[in-house]
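User: Please predict structures.

Assistant: First:
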Amino acid sequence: MDQTKIGKFIAGCRKSRGLTQMQLAEKLNVTDRAVSKWETGKALPDVALMLELCDFFGITVNDLLCGEVVSMDQYNKELENNLLEVIRQKEEADKRMLKIEIVLGIISVLPLAAAAIIAVLVPMEEWKAGLMVGLSLLPLLIATPFAIKIEQKAGYYECGACGHRHVPRYGSVFMAMHMGRTRYMRCPECGKKSWQKKVIAKEEK
């Protein structure tokens, strides 16, 4: 998708209605800064706002994502291309999120590793060593729920029994036994428990 082209298209639709950015923003209940970002190609409207924006301008979502009104003979192909692009962008975003999870994990474990090394190498009273190690656990305890949330939302889990790919509930991921990002959970499709690996794509490529 060409965000610059989409932005110019939004601006053109707005001007054809004789609206300022502020007036359009008020009708959509957003800020004029948000409208400005759309029109300059710096950002796209959220999905819910896309539908409202398209309804307001009398265009389709496919028209919006193409940055022009699409003729019926081009519609199916353009729609397919736009859907593929949305999927690609989601997969790239999920990959970035999973990298952030790794960084978060490393950063939260470092204080614990450092405290353990110091406790072994530096002579000190047992209670002091215990307190130091205990305090060093805090970053890990704080970071763990956020890391699991990232892992739950980014990509999918693939059932080891039937191959179904799904996004489980946070509680299922949090409570599941795991080896790395592979977790032992129940599949919502076949109902069986299995070791489910993390994958990025919804379908096999």
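Second:
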Amino acid sequence: MKRTAKAHWTGNLKEGKGTLTTQSNILNQANYSFKLRFEEGLTGTNPEELIAAAHSGCFTMAVSSILSQKGFNPTSLDTVATITLENGVITNSHLAITGRVPGLSAGEFETVTKDAEKNCIVSKALNFSITSEAKFLGD
């Protein structure tokens, strides 16, 4: 399986701008730029936000998969991924998951999330620190 995304850019780094389009067209000429990357309150996306989206989605699916393999059916799983960019280097992805899983204990939930943190496909592709925290809501 292969997935694609296209980037188009015009201009120099600081004043230029671009668009991103994914194979599925879920992103269809989404704006991105230097300003969108480093200034708050502007509409558009940036590479770090897209990495966070990919990591939170993959991690949450991995948690669901592990739970299913153990015979549990989650009622809800919600993850926030926070990507840290320092001095031009991505240094960390922190995953904060909240879950409601009938019949599961908080300790079992923590064990499952740590497994997913290390073994989801996106985690394996990233070359920086990955941490997670789990908040178990019971069932």
